Amino acid sequence: MDARLNFFTNPTAQKFTKYINSAGKAVTDSSLPRATQDLVLLRASQINGCGFCTDMHTKDAEAAGETTQRLHLVAAWREATVFTDAERAALELTEEGTRIADAAGGVSDEVWAAAAKHHDEDQLAALVGLIAVINAYNRMNVIIRQPAGSYQPGQFA
């Protein structure tokens, strides 16, 4: 399977991804815990059906020390006991922020309040930015049908 468009060699695509990566760096450099970032990236990618990003973020999280058990349970986080309350709030915000069209009002006040209970303002800003960035990447990769499975941890570092 080949991608419809090579985002790694196309000049316009390279410019586009350069700016998205710059936005993502603001999140990476924030005080939002790396484990939370990894869980958010993986959950949004699962929801959006982005195989490339699911592959990448699973492998990067594992390389950063995340457990296989937690990675396997991200899709069923509500029933899992392995996530902190702060991580659960971030995952719920991710789901509502990713599935905007599924909820007439967007992200509910209850979900926002839960996230705000566990994250300071800078971490909330990082969460919002991270959810926006990963949704952009997921959509890009799904549209061009970027193949999954060959990513190596840290490949784009």
UniProtKB/TrEMBL annotation:
InterPro entries cross-referenced by the UniProt entry: AhpD-like (IPR029032), AhpD_core (IPR004675), CMD-like (IPR003779)
Gene Ontology molecular-function annotations: peroxiredoxin activity
Residue ranges of domain Carboxymuconolactone decarboxylase-like in the record: 16-96
Pfam families: CMD (PF02627)
Highest taxon, organism lineage: Bacteria
Protein name: Alkylhydroperoxidase AhpD family core domain-containing protein
Lineage, highest ranks first: Bacteria, Bacillati, Actinomycetota, Actinomycetes, Kitasatosporales
